[in-house]
Write a structure and sequence with these properties.
2 copies of one chain form a homodimer. Chain A contains 11 helices and 8 strands. Chain A is α/β, with parallel strands linked by helices and about 270 residues long. Chain A folds into 2 domains: about 180 residues, Alpha/beta knot, CATH 3.40.1280.10; about 70 residues, Helicase, Ruva Protein, domain 3 (Orthogonal Bundle). Chain A has a 7-stranded parallel beta sheet.
């Protein structure tokens, strides 16, 4: 549906930033690659696609199909007849290319380029990243215009990526530079029972379990009992149990004890 | 050529590590995707591919074609009939999946998972990363087996990646965690002239330029001369000139001065 479609697109655009690096494709050959680049860009919140002299007759329909719905990037793409024009308004540009043997030029990692892009953006300066023709790379003249060469750290004996993958890795570094996702966390769920259990609830479970273990004879060796209890408590202490999970565990204990000492729930 | 081919492959394998995370594809549907995953793995130095119940009749030839030469990963791939068997020897496993609504489960970024994998490897513990069926993702039962969910920070309204791209981003984080490429550096070139110029060579150029600027009248206003000279020196001081570049600049000055004051090289 057009309506749904429009809504989805505008949401994806909401996470894009005008001050993100421009992606500049110099002489791309295939509509498929342009489309997949658009997709990778939108994945990473990049919206400024610039295309210099694409191969005549590149297939716009194929580009759109391969963009997996990133049409808004293709719709906003701008076309240029020279790299010079494509980068005219940018302050810093990076070349993605193999290290040129006889140029003296700074090399940067994608993480460093992302850091610099973010820093430059705070001063309202904009960066761009140049990608050359599939398989052939950038012209040396275009590389010479660039401030630095962006080198992807990958298996040196197997480093070749397709255009969209290179855009994805570089865009990902930029996106994560701006992203504040915690490295490791346990998200809240909608269920009220999913709240972390209080210590009273957790200790209630421990005591329930230990009563049943006493009853069953598992803890019968007096002098070993304290350390066994501590070891068992430490297993569950590592888990950060929720209230739901405490109740599940109490149910397990009750049911397992059932055949031995009466109905479930007996060992309250 | 077979010989060349073999040499290239063994070189790519040299940068792979057995203690890197295993990549576990659960019920992959298309040979193309398996091939592209193998390529992304080799890009990132990952070599341990495990495949659980691929779709019957998946195309091994297509996989090889789409692997762009990463056959050694495909050749070493192991096949399993259950996820349980595929992960049996691993100590920590991560699920790549959308956040399940009603599970209480730690979420980690790919960078954090990479950090943990490297740390666990130092204790000879091995990690694995589970990927579900294209478009469908992992079964909840497989997710429940995992220690944490690996969540890729991307445009939340446009986060869908294909299998190989997800493997690439995760593998890239692992590879860079082990990689010591400097964030920014100027590599040495083979040319002897590309060595950084000494201060004597650089100052020789400054003085040459300033003599010609004096001769030409550019620095004629006495009270402004010192600050103009400093400003000009500061332009070039930011460049970290090589010997070659100093000589090029002296040539430029000589030739530009040529029409004015005699032959090139006059202003020695």
């Amino acid at each position: 549906m057009a309506g749904t479609d429009r809504r989805r697109k505008s949401e994806a655009a909401d996470f894009c930033r005008e001050d993100a690096p421009a992606i500049i494709l110099v002489e791309p050959q295939l509509g498929e690659n342009i489309g997949m680049v658009a997709r990778a860009m939108l994945n990473c919140g990049l919206i400024d696609l610039r295309i210099v002299n694409p191969r005549e007759g590149w297939d716009r329909d194929k580009a759109e199909k391969c963009s997996s719905g990133a049409r808004l990037v293709l719709d906003r793409a701008r076309f240029f007849t020279s790299t010079k024009e494509a980068v005219a308004d940018l302050e810093t540009i990076y070349a993605t290319t193999a290290r040129p043997r006889d140029m003296v030029k700074a090399m940067v990692t994608p993480r460093q380029a992302a850091k610099e892009s973010v820093e430059l953006a705070t001063r309202e300066l904009k960066t761009g990243i140049l990608f050359g023709k599939e398989a052939k790379g950038l012209h040396n003249d275009d590389v010479a215009m660039c401030d630095a060469i962006l080198h992807l750290p990958l298996n040196p004996a197997f480093a070749s990526l397709n255009l969209a993958q290179a855009v994805l890795l570089i865009g990902y570094e930029w996106y994560t530079m701006n992203d504040d996702t915690e490295e490791r966390y346990i998200p809240e769920t909608r269920s009220k029972m999913a709240r972390p259990a209080t210590k009273e609830e957790v200790i209630g479970f421990y005591e329930h379990l230990e009563r049943e273990l006493d009853d069953s004879g598992f803890l019968r060796i007096e002098e070993k009992r304290p350390s066994m209890v501590r070891n068992i408590r430490n297993i569950f202490a590592r888990v950060e149990l929720t209230l739901q999970e405490v109740q599940t565990l109490r149910g397990i204990v009750a049911f397992l004890s059932n055949g031995r000492s009466g109905g479930p729930g007996k060992g309250k």
